[in-house]
Write a structure and sequence with these properties.
By secondary structure, the chain is an alpha+beta fold. Strands 1, 2, 3, 4, 5, 6, 7, 8, 9, 10 and 11 form an eleven-stranded mixed β-sheet that branches. The chain is elongated and about 90 Å long. 24% of the residues are buried.
Length: 259
């Protein structure tokens, strides 16, 4: 099995042949095996691998993303007729230079209308897809006003079951995130101040017992209090008190109903 990939950056074209069990890393610097002069590419932008029965692309955490037929992806199979976009570069398969078995292997096994949602691992970055015009406004309802709701609607339209992480939700809700951080700072200082206050109260009540070990007891109790606070918030509850108060946890848990 052999595939010829065609790269087009503005008016400059190039071709790269791939045989079974080989791959090519595409990028802007010598970190890649196929360098392309495109300022929008990362040093090592993505990797395309030809396996015995399929052609696969994996995004290498590029800054500007890897797009397959207009959708930003992390990983996907590539079929005849698909178009990859890497920065200003378009990548396609040269069908006329393939043998019949290779053409058969890389022909999508189904109706073309089903291609969009087949085997994609999507990489969504907020409302960027909508803002860049990659997904037209008609593909989502006009009701949502916040960026995370817009993105959930886009995911729904392409039948994606990928959930937004807590960090992604916080990035898309900056006002709530800032308020949550403020609450968490207050509670963190409270977790330090409360044991220090109690130790001093105990010193006043029984100075003989506590006075000589005052600093040690204060430091130990403050460390224990802060440690307990962070373990409960980040390890057990997964959400901080601030994130619960400001509704970030609620947005995260309600995703199943929106996707």
């Amino acid at each position: 099995m052999k595939v010829i990939l065609k790269f087009k950056t503005n008016a400059i074209e190039s071709e790269v042949p791939l045989v079974e069990r080989t791959s090519v890393v595409i990028g802007r610097t010598n970190k890649s095996s196929h360098m392309i002069s495109d300022e929008l590419l990362s040093g090592a932008h993505c990797k395309i691998t030809l396996m015995p029965d399929r052609l696969e692309v994996i995004d290498l955490e590029s800054k500007n993303g890897t797009y397959l037929n207009g959708l930003r992806i992390e990983q996907s199979e590539i079929f005849l007729g698909d178009e990859l976009r890497l920065g200003s570069t378009k990548v396609t398969i040269v069908a006329e230079k393939m043998d019949p078995p290779s053409i058969k292997a890389l022909t999508f096994p189904g109706a073309s209308r089903d291609r969009q949602s087949h085997g994609l691992q999507l990489d969504f970055t907020g409302a960027r897809m909508i803002n860049q015009g990659i997904v037209p406004p008609s593909t989502y309802e006009s009701k949502p006003t916040t960026s995370e709701n817009k993105e959930l609607e886009v995911r729904k339209k392409v039948h994606s079951k990928i959930r937004l992480s807590k960090q992604e939700i916080k990035l898309r809700n900056k006002s709530r995130s800032s308020l949550a951080s403020t609450f968490d700072i207050i509670f963190t200082f409270s977790s330090i101040a409360l044991p220090l206050f109690l130790v001093n109260v105990f010193v006043l009540i029984n100075p003989v017992l506590f006075e000589n070990n005052r600093l040690l007891i204060m430091g130990g109790s403050a460390a224990l209090s802060v440690g307990t606070f962070f373990i409960v918030n980040f390890k057990i509850l997964k959400f901080t008190i601030g994130e619960k108060i400001t509704g970030i946890e609620k947005i995260y848990n309600e995703q199943e109903d929106k996707i």
